[in-house]
Design goal:
Elements lengths: L5 E4 L9 H15 L6 E6 L9 H14 L10 E2 L4 H13 L3 E4 L3 H13 L13 H9 L5 E4 L6 E5 L4 E5 L8 E3 L7 H11 L4 E5 L5 H11 L6 E5 L2 E2 L9 H18 L3 H8 L3 H9 L7 H11 L11 H6 L4 H9 L14 H7 L10 E2 L2 H14 L2 H13 L11 H10 L6 H12 L9 H27 L6 H15 L3 H13 L7 H8 L1 H14 L1
Helix pairs in contact: 6-7, 8-11, 9-10, 13-15, 16-17, 19-21, 19-23, 20-22, 21-23
The structure holds glutamic acid.
Glutamic acid binds next to loops.
Length: about 550
Amino acid sequence: MSTPIVTRFAPSPTGYLHVGGARTALFSWLLARNQGSQGRYLLRIEDTDLARSTQQACDQLLEDLKWLGLHWDNADNLIFQSKRVDLYNRLIADLIARGLAYEAWETAEELTALRQQAEKAKRPYVYRRPSYTPDQIAQLKAQGRKSVIRFATPAKEYRFHDVIAGKDIVMPDEERQDFVIRKTDGMPTYHFAVVVDDVEMGITHILRGGEHTKNTFLHIALQEALNYPRPIYAHLSTIQNMDNTKMGKRDRDKKVREQTNNYLKNTKKTPADLAAQTGLASSRIADWLANSKSQLDPSDHDKLMPVIGLKPTDLPEILVHDFRRNGYLPEALLNFLALLGWSPGENRELMSMDEMTRLFSIDRISNAPAKFDRAKLLAFNTQTVETATPARLLAALRDYLSVNPDSPLNQATDEQLAQLLHMKKGFRTLREVDDLCRFFFYPDDHITFDPKAVEKVLKKDDNAGLNTLQEIRPLLAAAPDWRADPLEAAIKQYCESKNLTLGNVAQPIRVAISGTTVSPPIFHSLEFLGKDRSLARIDRCLKQS
Ligand code: GLU
């Protein structure tokens, strides 16, 4: 009998869930679920950074996890670290009493100066316990300084086994530090709270991002001082873009930067002009453009994008929410995320959640950087859509619309949405359905005709398209049956009699009803729009062109 596996996902609620976090959650979930009813997957909210953690961010995070379907087993007892301060304080008091933790008084500036001194002397900076005399402490207190509590890390080499790296990871004694376990605001640091809670929650396996590998030395030092058992550690590899750069929020900034530079070049405008147009400080824009390592806040991006001609959906998706808003299905995203480092073998790729759960094992997770291949994700989404039932697609489209409240498709009935999904069969993302079908829902007199389409389809060759439209109009008006098949038969007959191709006729109709040269299949579009609205749009197009 193996011991039951207990895993956890422990996000800090500082915003929407990043795909890297989602992968960690997924692997932790799969590892627990692979054990059936024996395994447990728990959620803990690491909200000890009071300045950065917000209720809104926490709600967003929970919503993203629910959208993915990664349900946690402690729904009735979700752990918030901010509510457990008494417990941490009791344990810290005990460490202090045992001489394993102490008050320290340096300010941030003093610590920076110490670090700079070490850098100058070309030695690594490590914090070791200073000795304060009682007088000095009295003086520091009199100055109104607040102390932190540091852990007096016992001198020794620290080592732990990482199952993904497949080897021991070692920190020599020289690198040991006395790190902070309680901050000046009285909250525990991440290092302290994570150690206490992992043991309190009975966690057996810790899967987390590779950026935490070195933190694990601090955690095992604390576990030893607190007489805690050591869980199994597995640090996941980084997720990279196809060009080997680390995938992250920076990629969105990069795209905005490129477009801003293009915009300035093409319009011959200056950062000061842009500042006037966006309300951002001109120095902020100039500094950002001058320093490719700097980043603007997402709220600044929002101000710039309409001016430089970018839509939110033009930015590369990074957050789970971005993928949801752009019309990916959670099952496709999960399948794709699972393969960022894990593989079941035999080149197996497309899998249901049940299959992934059955096949998952920690020893098939690789430590090589995982490539985030967006083309592959799109292909997964397309395949998922292809095999999904109509009811599943309808639910997915409704969900997509709930996070795209501006889409006019929100006005549609379920029956209409089902028709659109059917008409647009073979689509890759729900956003494609949305983009292509919006014109149905605009008021007839709000259709704007794309000048290029008008030129190419209606005006070219001496208004050939317009003339056809004019001729076909009475035929359509007389159509006794406004369904796709009879409409198609009537138009085909007309084409034959006039020696025209179907395209010669279909394209002018398409431009007239949609304003563009792309739409779902034309006869189904006419049926969907209905006779009166189709004719009204054709009339308006004839009048305007
Ligand atoms: N709150 C930490 C984070 O979001 C959790 C790290 C861990 O899993 O221990 O990165």
